[in-house]
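Single Protein Entry

Contents — chain, fold
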Amino acid sequence: MSDERSNRVEQVTPYSDQTTAKTEQVRQMFDAIAPAYDFMNRAMTLGIDIWWRRLAVKRLKRIHPKHILDVATGTGDFAIQLNESLHPQHITGIDLSQGMLDEACRKVKGKELENTISFEQGDCMALPMADETFDAVTVAFGVRNFEHLQQGYHEMARVLKPGGMLCVLELSTPTDPIIRWFYDIYTLHIIPAIGAMKSGDKSAYRYLPQSIAAVPQGDDMLQLMRNAGLRKTAFRRLTLGVCTIYTAVK
């Protein structure tokens, strides 16, 4: 089932009228919406995404990571939160979109964290890092954008040290039918309308609920982690099932 769900999310792209690969479309989309991204995150989740990240960070405290890789780091919110809570020696953030990284660099500079947090542009399908480099690898709201999800997990497992932890925070769909009804109205109609007004890119916020619905969830997601050689896999659903934390150990 996990392979089928992986194929589904890999086929969901931001711009269905384009023939370019998903990776390039995702890069184009995030470059376009970067200035509005943080506002839309707060608006879409009513600010609860901050709490979700805090819960994810708590999962990492037990291993006291010194070197962390934040994949699909976006505008750097999770990297900054990881630094504030865990005080590692260094955090590296990587993202496809230079537009998002520009926003992240601006935040880090404003907090004078340039010596602790660094960013680079790159593709999670081929991480430019050596094997067994990091104590922890994190992804917040990013795996559904991977062009090849299983390959992405193999790459993240590759750069983890033995005993290191992978922590994935991803949006998910509620299973309760009543909650799902309200959720569908919000994600399929309200969010695209707000996104179009704020960012000027309605397609990007139509892609959001489509990619959430298609991405592997629950044990299907854990199976992809196990396929990559990771163990001690676990997940926890948050806020009526609209977000899930996934963890695994190398």
